[in-house]
Amino acid sequence: MTEAALRVMTQAPFAARRAREPAMSRRLLLPLLLVPALAGAATDFSAAEQALFLGTPLATLRPPLTLDYAFHRSGTLEAPLDDSVKLDLKAQAGGGCCAVTARLLSGPNALQQPEVDNAQGNPALMYFLERDIREMQRLTGGQPNYFRKRIRMAVYQGATQRELRLPYRGATVAVKAYSIAPYLDDPNRGRFEKLAAKRYDFYVSDAVPGGLYAIRTRIDGTDPATPLLQEEMLLDGAAAPPLQTPSRP
Questions:
Q1: Coil/strand/helix, residue 44
Q2: Contact 201/178 with Cβ under 8 angstroms?
Q3: Helix, strand or coil for residue 2?
């Protein structure tokens, strides 16, 4: 399935579209499903949606090449993990970018993902979020579609934006940071109160290959210096962004 076809499908009603698509295709659609199905308002996208899900950061790359990300998990809730995410980019028949094959973590933590044809956006963000949703399901017993909906609406309605200057391979680059806390005002947060303060920070930059500088999720612990759970995916050559002052529920 091509990315162009997926973009067209975002204009169909969300529920009807889910009934037609096989499970694997729905997972591939995650970034697009995060854009609300707005009746007759195809251009009504927030700044965060446009930056995270509607850009074309792969279009200017010259394959073959590999985008490398480090993956780190820390905190008191789960065992620490240091692994990697690799996106192998191949040229399309016409020479443009890209068909993408992902290597998402390794060993017992590896997650198999199908190749994405004619990718313009960076699917690393999609893969990170889909794994995050699986983990929320595992830790809470909740339904994946519920967590997708909360993230989708938070990106549409509740994202905050910051302008940063961060290091990349010896230079300093402009980075836009978008932050959401999709469960803080969730009427059902009592079912997973321990995780309700989870925060998502997305760091994007036109100055880095693939446009995605880093993603971080964090749940603060009782000790501000030690999170309950933090997961971070960081582009090779980038530095971990500074933590924000935690927002309390």
A1: coil
A2: yes
A3: strand
Instruction: Convert the pLDDT of each residue in 207-237 to its tens digit.
Output: 999 999 999 999 998 887 899 999 999 999 9
Domain assignments of the chain as residue spans, ordered by start: 3-235
Task: Count CB-CB contacts under 10 A for residue 91.
Answer: 15
Nearest to 216 by CA among 194, 237, 238: 238
**Cβ 241 vs Cβ 173: under 8 Å:** no
- Rounded Cα distance between 137 and 146, Å, is 10
Rg of the chain, C-alpha, whole Å? 17
CA–CA distance, 221 with 219 (Å, rounded to integer)? 7
CA angle 198, 101, 153 (to 5 degrees): 30
- Local structure of 151: helix, strand or coil: helix
- Is the CA virtual torsion 172, 120, 153, 125 positive or negative? negative
> Which uninterrupted H or E stretch holds 27?
helix 23-28
Q: Are 2 and 117 in contact (CB under 8 A)?
A: yes
Q: Give the amino acid at 93.
A: A
User: For the whole prediction, is pTM greater than 0.90?
Assistant: no
User: Could you report the per-residue pLDDT of 136-157, keeping only the tens digit for each?
Assistant: 999 999 999 999 999 999 999 9
